[in-house]
Amino acid sequence: MHVAIIGGASTIGTTVAYTLSGLAPSVDVSLVDINEGAAWAHGTDIEHASYHFAHAPGAVPGHDTESVGTIRSATPDELGALDPDLLVFNAAAPQPDDATDPSAREAELERNLSIVRDVAEDLQSLDPTPLLVVTNPIDRLVYHFYTLLEWPRRCFIGYSLSETARMVDGIADLVDGHRNDVYCPMMGEHGEHMVPVFSRARVDGDPLDVTESERTELMEYVRDIPFDIAEERGVDETSRWVTSAGVSRVVRAMAAADDDVPIDGTPAGVEPAGDDWTFCLSTPLDGEYGFEDVSLGVPVDLDADGVAAIHEWDLADDESAELRRAYESVRADLP
Ligand SMILES: NC(=O)c1ccc[n+]([C@@H]2O[C@H](COP(=O)([O-])OP(=O)(O)OC[C@H]3O[C@@H](n4cnc5c(N)ncnc54)[C@H](O)[C@@H]3O)[C@@H](O)[C@H]2O)c1
Ligand SMILES: O=C(O)C[C@H](O)C(=O)O
């Protein structure tokens, strides 16, 4: 699989490339950026790092000489020639230093929309290719890419898995468990109107029992934590580790589904119990959950071509009402 990371010299893009070189070394990566010098410099540094990944004890498949992938750098006008299997969109305009509160994601819309328009021009020469949008505000930008490129809607995916990792950490603290045994899918907007699906949350396979005030506390934690992190570390760092691990998880799921067996988020070696590990990603809706002309986080299966299926879960009444609020919030900003 060949992944082109647009905005490849970015904090998140470089961390995704580094993570893939350790955990999915057979993936070829192109770092595509208007700052080609920085993309080349990061690519070269990561290539050097991959020598140590290859020689550390413990087997991660793909480090052998025959299968190990390449890391290249390129400019956006070279995208057509690269012919990637998957595009990751992480390009963004610089954030103001005070972008450390939950309104920061939506405030990026105007700044990043002009980059989306430029990149969509560069992508016109490609055949339809799955496009994973990480740049904020993801739901709105996914929908703009969808209307600009007119590729099949299954190509368009917005990354919103970081809040799942945050929510399960909050739940684990609450129930005195380990986050790795907790599942709580997050639907809706990647932003203020995220929708935790508590009705499907599990701890060690059992339903989660939380009070209304505990739910409110958990939501506040998930809303605030990325901005507490940005406050301490600076807006140039954002939440690079969880985001890059989550993006790499999506890339690896799509690579593993190369033989057209869809993947739903279930980790290797875990017996699926119903939909218990299904992940939620943003994708354009066409009537699912009663919504259209919008992109929202919904439970999906992935394959090498993008979204293979959208699951329509029976939601609790309050979850459906919150999903409608997410729709109204995102839809209000779209043409
Ligand atoms: N979805 C999530 O969970 C999540 C998490 C963290 C960050 N983000 C978002 O990811 C985005 C990127 O954050 P970052 O800190 O990695 O960015 P960054 O500021 O480190 O880098 C942005 C990169 O984009 C490049 N760029 C600008 N215009 C370009 C163009 N036309 N073509 C190609 N490259 C271009 C710049 O040269 C730069 O290298 C932001 O919108 C941020 O809010 C999303
Ligand atoms: O970078 C941000 O603005 C926050 C990001 O969307 C995140 O969820 O970590």
UniProtKB/TrEMBL annotation:
Residues at the active site: H190 (proton acceptor)
Main enzyme class: oxidoreductase
Enzyme Commission designation: 1.1.1.37
Positions that bind NAD(+): G7, G8, A9, S10, T11, I12, G13, D33, N112, V134, T135, N136
Domain Lactate/malate dehydrogenase N-terminal per the UniProt entry, residue ranges: 2-148
UniProt function note: Catalyzes the reversible oxidation of malate to oxaloacetate.
Protein name per its UniProtKB record: malate dehydrogenase
Lineage of the organism: Archaea, Methanobacteriati, Methanobacteriota, Stenosarchaea group, Halobacteria
